[in-house]
Design brief:
This protein has 517 residues and is of the alpha+beta class. It folds into three domains: 3-85 and 196-384, BirA Bifunctional Protein, domain 2 (2-Layer Sandwich); 86-189, Herpes Virus-1; 410-515, 3-Layer(aba) Sandwich (Rossmann fold). Helices cover 40% and strands 25% of the residues. The strands form seven sheets. The protein has a seven-stranded mixed sheet. Strands 20-19-21-22-23 form a five-stranded mixed sheet, with helices on both faces. The protein has a three-stranded antiparallel sheet with strand order 5-4-6. The two termini are 37 Å apart. The protein binds adenosine-5'-triphosphate.
Amino acid sequence: MAQEDLFKKIIAHAKEYGFIFQSSEIYDGLSAVYDYGQNGAQLKNNIKQYWWDAMVKLNENIVGLDSAIFMHPDTWKASGHLSAFNDPMIDNKDSKKRYRADELIEDYIDKQQAKIDKEVAKARKKFGDDFDEQKFMETNPRVQKYREKMEATRQQLIKALEDDDLKALGQLIEDCEIADPVSGSKNWTEVRQFNLMFETQLGSLSDGANKIYLRPETAQGIFVNYLNVQKTGRMKLPFGIAQIGKAFRNEIVARQFIFRMREFEQMEMQYFVRPGQEKEWFEHWKNTRVKWHKALGIDENMFRLHEHDKLAHYANAAYDIEFQFPFGFKELEGIHSRTDFDLSQHQEYTGKKIQYYDPELDKSYVPYVVETSIGLDRMFLAVLTAAYHEEEVPKDNGKSEQRVVMKLPPALAPIQLAVLPLVRKDGLPEKAREIIDSLKIDFICQYEEKDSIGRRYRRQDAIGTPYCITVDHQTLEDNTVTIRDRDTMEQERVATDQLSEILDKKVNMKHLLEKIL
Ligand code: ATP
């Protein structure tokens, strides 16, 4: 299936099955803002739980925090967000569309790579088994030309971003003859800086309102609470503070569904370490986070690590865990070594000492920080992308039909067990409800009696329910039910008192956590 089609299908499926709705849809929606529906909210909560438990439950030296979205406005002066949290924007004068200048150039670089891939594929087809890819890459003049262009553009882009040189970015767009992807026009404005923070007022205007900001990252809530947590929790270095919460960015172009939103959720953990040990801890957290992703059983080829070319103003090392979304490999999570930048800045702006007394060294210092930062919504989209499958399945009459099945990691599924009475009479609904009552404290169960069994199975497949059980007349006689596995579609007759154990093995989050211990 073409990747574009896959993306459209995932978006439509997410809406049809109550995962994600456009915000304020009855008012025709609000651009790039989304609501999570009945299944989406549960799936999102499960992802949060997996992350939270992996951080806070599995590590005795990591504690949680829930800080406010509003913060003292000076926080953002100290953190550098007021002056430096900008993206370079450019408008097309003909289409009136706005773009991030750096993204237009990155897309151009990707296009050169796509041209190289095409040449290689063509040559492979022509030469068959004799094809030597390395030699071809080194000698083919067309490939050489694309490669040189790609490398030169990349270097110029990095330099322009490092120097904050907006003119150079504009020049690069002109030199590469980049056209507006919508209209094809090359009639651009100059490149300008755009601050991504949302502003609002605290207090009513008459009594002198203060300008404040919606936090663009949750991390600063952790930094300003460093002393509180360290002192009251009597934490010793190294230790971490984990937080899940909303963040807001007035993105120049919010697009690609829930990948880039203006209101989103982050799951961030700041790990405070002794200066000089940050590289070691950076490696540790990079590996630990990769393990967390892999434990979900998603195809490993859908993940890759990418080292940053341009470091943020606070970092001395940075890696992205990228995921293969339907629109290509893009950042899912960032692992950053943030040095002592943030804590030192807050120390300077508040005049308060933010230091740690290290008894082993008999010395006080500002700790260094290694951060792991993942977008919850992006993780949600990654999970949906990996789960979406279309399959041909045999029907009873010997023909086949198509089913859409969400092969979600079972521990994340919004519904873990669907209980289906075969018919809506003869005491079967009552028996089904009795079974749910015995399981609902431990598992998320759903009762469904409408439509034929086959159609009910399809609906549960579409939301990713790992197991369905059917309650029939035999159940009344011997307390057995048929249990159907979502992925294999195999059915088995089991006693109702075995259900709890079967379900536990499949859906208990504990089994995911065991894999990353
Ligand atoms: P990008 O380069 O895609 O704009 P970023 O490098 O600015 O992302 P960070 O500041 O490192 O992102 O934020 C940490 C994580 O928060 C990202 O890895 C991503 O998963 C998530 N995130 C950032 N911006 C958004 C957004 N607008 N919508 C949804 N998630 C986001």
